[in-house]
Amino acid sequence: MSEYAVYAEIVYWRRSLWNGARCVPVVLSLFPGELRAEDRDGQVVVQGDPREVEGRLTRLGTLLITVRGERYALVGRGGGLSPVPSPGQRAAVSAFGASSPAAGGAVDQFLNAGAGARMRAWHTRLGGAGARLW
């Protein structure tokens, strides 16, 4: 990963609606002109110009984005069966000097560990970078 990211944070990619073990951590980073997500092994799984990203935020806080014709469901926290972020992912986010996650309301904090607020913040960031979001 480059040290020039505008923002980076660990979020979870819901590869399956039903299998919690397939909800995997990715480092989502926003660079000038590039949105990228890297998996636990450092492999790029999402990459594209944020101005070409389309998507929406669901009522339950899932950020659904389409990048280069592929749809991704991103959430602010994993499930009980989800793998934990790797030490490399944690180090990568720390290296970017990411700020603390968005706080959210009391219900979001209590029931969802602030995941909804985290994804609303990403929705705002992507919109500011030119993504077509609704």
Considering the chains and any ligands shown, give keywords for the structure.
3 helices, alpha+beta, 134 residues, globular, eight-stranded mixed beta sheet
How would you characterize this protein structure?
The mean pLDDT is 86. The longest helix is centred in the last third of the chain and has 14 residues, at 115-128. Helix content is 23%, strand content 33%. With 134 residues, the chain is an alpha+beta fold. A hairpin with an 8-residue loop joins strand 1 (7-14) and strand 2 (23-31). The chain has 3 helices and 8 strands.
Question: How would you concisely characterize the structure shown here?
Answer:
The protein has 134 residues and is an alpha+beta fold. The protein has helices spanning 87-96, 106-112, 115-128; strands at 7-14, 23-31, 34-38, 44-48, 54-57, 63-67, 70-75, 132-133. The chain has three helices and eight strands.
Order of helices and strands: EEEEEEEHHHE
Please list the strands of the largest sheet in the order they lie side by side: 4-3-2-1-7-6-5-8
Tally of strands: 8
Low-confidence stretches: none
3D shape: globular
- Global mean pLDDT: 86
